[in-house]
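dude i think i finally got it to work??
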Amino acid sequence: MLYHLAQWLQADYSWLRLFSYLTVRAVLGILTALIFSFVFGPMLIERLYRFKFGQPIRDDGPASHLKKTGTPTMGGLLILAAIAVSTLLWGNLASKFVWYALVVTLAFGAVGFADDYIKIKHKNPKGLPARKKYFWLSLVGLSVSVVIFLTAKTPVETALIVPFLKNVSLPLGWFFVLWTYLVIVGSSNAVNLTDGLDGLAIMPTVLVASALAVFAYSTGNVKIAEYLGIPYIAGVGELAIFCTAIAGAGLGFLWFNAYPAQVFMGDVGALALGAALGVVAVLVRQEIVLAIMGGVFVAETVSVALQVGYFKYSGGKRIFRMAPLHHHYELKGWPEPKIIVRFWIITLILVLIGLSTLKVR
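look at this
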């Protein structure tokens, strides 16, 4: 909104042209989301305590987690509000890409909110029944996948881009719809599975979102895209503001979520943030790079799949002491802060590898 106001007034106030620059608005996006989180975070936590929105802890998890019972959850509401406010203030609201990202994020957040509310109301850590949960996630994921496909203006917007290889893309046709659905829903659930320790999921989300902001800016700039040998997609650069808003909101939330956490993000935050990363990766055509940069999320998801499959077909044997993967290291005796920071370090390395695909082709 402020972007459009500046556009309207810049004929009389030339200094407002500053807000036409994407880089300036991206910086303002991260600062706005960060300040919003700092201002409203304590208020939200106080109200979550007052309404007794405490997190029920699964009794089949690590015993050390039982002491976290009652810690306020649904802190993801703060993240979503900060992202929405920052994006609406500084983004170009005429961009379809901005609306795709916002709608997907908020819709997945709504499903997560329902899941969290049921957990709290019924004191049941399982929350929304799995079938209902995945029905709604699938409905949103498939709907937006179809819309993105039908509104694509160039072939490259629906082609699979292969990183590290110059000018290599695979036309997907209608398979793009299924592929996009899998990326968005898969990414959403991957972040949700990772959100099991204080700050474990939010910092990797911040790092990956920051890198995706670079991809969005580069893909939306015809000269940079040509120089780097990546596809140019007109208008997709506006997603850089959305991505920096995620980064700012995430850092602001981490202030309260760092070990020992004052608040948990809950499914309302985890499902939404995972979907946000997925839809941005789809729109900037970097799904494979997302899998590289979000390697921690992938590892957590694979660990669950392997554990369940092996347990079923081996007659009760296990690969890991407990899944997802971070619980395995907890049961090995690693202190929680050590697991968290090491996963952050791994994510930073993977993000740098992902960013290198911009040039190494």
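Strands lie at 159-161, 169-171.
im so relieved honestly
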